[in-house]
From TrEMBL:
This is Response regulator. The modification 4-aspartylphosphate is found at D47. The keyword Phosphoprotein applies. The keyword Phosphoprotein applies. It comes from the Bacteria. Residues 118-154 are annotated as: Disordered. Residues 1-115 form the Response regulatory domain. Keywords: Phosphoprotein. Signal peptide: none annotated.
Amino acid sequence: MALGNAQAAASLKDILLRRRVGVFTPANNRDAVEMMLDHSYNMLVIDEHFPDLGGIDFCRFLRLTNSPMAVAPVIFGIHEPNQKKVIAARDAGATKIAVMPFSGASLIKAMEDAANDPRPIIQDTSYNGPDRRTRSVPPPGGVDRRSKTPTSIDRATQMKILRGVKS
């Protein structure tokens, strides 16, 4: 599923159809939500310039829904990347960030990386998205300051959710 402007969506669709990947391109956030009510998608590509709501807010909304797409990998396309935009996309729950416009090779690489990402999905009041921790070291001073451990959905469970398998 690709979300964004018409020209980028058409180019993206051509690239993916050649690889036999189904693509749906809603015109705005209302169309996207309607499509998500009718279908389940196992990966999403969101353009930072997504109409109406904006890409960051739509990504955040998506991660907060009670649907299979809440755990789906999200590739977030940024037109003019800078540190502020990248951090905002990560904080919204993006799995991978790619520079737009996509080349065929860069899009396929981002999709493969996102599909093969083994990180669990963290669901908490302040953050919903892939676990961003890259090291497994004890917290400073050896004391975990969190009042509660956030919910974590492991990769196997994510795949079951995306396939529609009931636990």
